[in-house]
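COMPLEX REQUEST
Ligand: magnesium ion
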Amino acid sequence: MAKNTKYKFCFGPWNISEGQDPYGPTTRPAQNFDWKLNALKKLGYDAMMFHDDDAVPDIDSKSEQQIRKEAKELKKRLDGEGIAAEMVAPRLWFAPQTIDGAYTSNDPKARKYAIERSLRTIDLANIMGTNILVLWLAREGTYLREAKSCKRSMEYLVQALDKMLAHDKKIRISIEPKPNEPMDHAYIPTIGHALAIAQLTRDANRVGCLIESAHCILAGLDPADEIEFAMTFGKLWSLHLNDQNGLKFDQDKPFGSTNLRSAFNQVRALERTGYGKRGEYVCFDVHPFRTTKVEHWLKHLDNSRRTFLALVEKVRSYDEKKAQALIADRNYQDLDQMVIEHLLGK
Ligand code: GLO
Ligand code: MG
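STATUS: Structure written out below.
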C-alpha cells in the first residue's frame, strides 16, 4: 500500500485580513508583513503564498534592480525562518492600467502592461525559489457581453501565456478559475476551461490549475469532482481549500464551515489521487469573519487545518470494504447513511 501523504500547509498574508467589506470599514488594525510571517511560523505552517506586491510592496514604482534586491532579502529571511514560498501571483486586478481587464483588455497598452508585469513576477518567483506562477484571472471577463469578444479574449490569453512560457523554460502556470466576482462572467470559469486553454499554448505540459473550493461551488460544481478531474490530467499543482454557502458573494469561510460532508469528499479526493505526493501544498484561502476580535484573529487558519487533519483521519478510517459491498448491491440508501454516521462518529 502507498505510504500516507504527510501534508504541508500554507496561506497568504491576505488571509490575515482586517474585516472590511463593500459596506463597511476594517474591524481590526492592519498588521505588517513581519507580524504575519511570525503568525504563520507560530501556527506551524510550512509555506507562504505571495502576490508580487506582497513580496515587494509598491512593485510598480520600483526598478528591476530594486525589485531583485528586495526579493533576495525576503528569500534570505524566509530561509532563515525555514518557510518556503509556495507560489507568486501577479496582482493584476488592482492596478489602474487593468480596469478593463489585464491580458484581455480592449486597450493594447493595458495588455502590454499585464504581460510585462507577469514576466517580472516570473523573475520574482525564481528568486523566491518557486516555479509556480498562479494566475487568478480576476478581471478577464465582461460586465457587458457586447463590450468584448470571447474568441478574441482567448487569443489574447494564449498570446500572454505563450510569452510567459517562453520567458522561462521551468515556470509552471497554475490557472485559478472563478466564475464571477469581480466580473459578471469570467472567461475561464472552471477547471475544464483552464485545462482546455492550456492545450492551445506552446507548452501545454506547463499550464495546469489551482482549485479553490468556493470557486467551484460558485460555478455550481462539486469541488471533490473538480479535484479528481484535474488530478486525472496530472494538472492540480496548488489548492485553495475554504467554504462557501451557496451562490452568494465570495465568502472564503473556514474549511468545512458550511458543508462538512463536501469537505470530507474533497479530502477523500486528495487522498485517493495522491495530491501532495509531488510536494504540492494544501493552502487555505480563508478569511476571518468580520466580527472576529484581534485575540481570535488566527483561529480561521488554525481551525481550517484542524478540520482538514480530522477529515484525513475520517477518510483513512472509512470502511471501504463495506462501502464497496453496498455499491455492488446498489444500496446507495445505506451508503448515504454509512457516510453520515461515519462523520457523526458513530
Ligand atoms: C479570490 C481569489 C484570490 C486568489 C489570490 C491568489 O477570489 O481566491 O484570493 O486566490 O489572489 O492569486
Ligand atoms: Mg483563491
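REMARKS: Residues 9-316 form a domain with the TIM Barrel fold (CATH 3.20.20.150). The pocket of D-glucose (ligand 1) is lined by residues 89, 134, 136, 176, 178, 212, 240, 250, 285 (CB under 6 Å).
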